[in-house]
Amino acid sequence: MKTLDELVKEMAGKTHLQQAEFAGAEVQLEGQLTQITTDYLACVQTESPGPLMLVRHEGELLKRQLLEYSVGDGVRMTTRFIAMTSDPDSYHFNLVSIVRLYTSEAKDKEKREAEEKREAEEKSKSSCFVATAAYGSPNLAVWILLEYRDRILTRALMGRMAVRFYYAMSPPFARFIATSSWRRRLARLLLGPVIFVARRQLDAHQSVSGCNGRSTKSLDASRGSVFRMKLL
After folding, report:
1. Does 232 fall in a domain?
2. Are residues 166 and 143 in the same domain?
3. Partner of 36 at 20 to 30 A CA spacing, among 86, 123, 175, 187?
4. H/E element, 92
5. For the segment 115-145, what is each residue's pLDDT rounded down to a tens digit?
6. What are phi and psi of 75, to 5 degrees?
């Protein structure tokens, strides 16, 4: 049994008369249903772009089975090749059997879950767990540490390794700090020198690079302060 890709490759460059010799060949198709009519199924490949597959279905048994299918369902079909048309580029088949691989609802749920996971990962990467637990968010101290991470640490291999280690190890410490007011005060006290050094390096980086990104000074000016932070 051929796949659609194998059939397309074998038919490439052949005349219409030569292509007619493939009629009746058994082909396994896999893709997503885009249309269901009383006579035909339209299907497209999901893994890679390819031609439209038009599959003719006959017989009451197949028609009753197809009543349970919906547009968007993923299917695997055993078919027999009929012909190819070039306007539009499509391949025509007769349906022998069909199996549903997934429903459109399940596919939509999978996409939503993947998007939610991606958003959660992006959110975790855009936060500083320990500083957020100590200072709350939004906060100037948290912002400075994030800027230090993005502008300085991640520019060097050792810095990127330190960032990955921090994100792997810091969540439990952040949860421990967040549950107690005195632990938050202690964390702010310990983070104070770190933030001071990070601020100085960011100022030096800003003056040397002259980059057009956000400026810690402009942030302070907009808040009407010059690095005023509550450390205790």
Report:
1. no
2. yes
3. 86
4. strand 89-102
5. 877 765 655 555 677 888 888 866 788 888 8
6. -135, 160
Cα distances (Å, whole numbers) of residue 73 to 49, 66, 81, 183: 17, 11, 22, 53
pLDDT of residue 154: 86
Question: Do 53 and 62 touch, CB atoms closer than 8 A?
Answer: no
What total of structural domains would you count in the chain?
2
Angstrom distance (rounded) from CA 102 to CA 68: 12
Q: What is the mean pLDDT of the chain?
A: 81
Final residue in a domain of this structure, among 77, 104, 131: 104
Query: Burial of 96 by CB count in 10 Å (0-12 exposed, 13-18 middle, 19+ buried)?
Result: middle
- In this structure, of 1-15, 57-71, 174-188, 214-228, the range with the lowest mean pLDDT score is 214-228
User: Which residues span the domain enclosing 56?
Assistant: 2-104
Same domain, 169 and 214: yes
Tokens describing residue 107: 């596919």
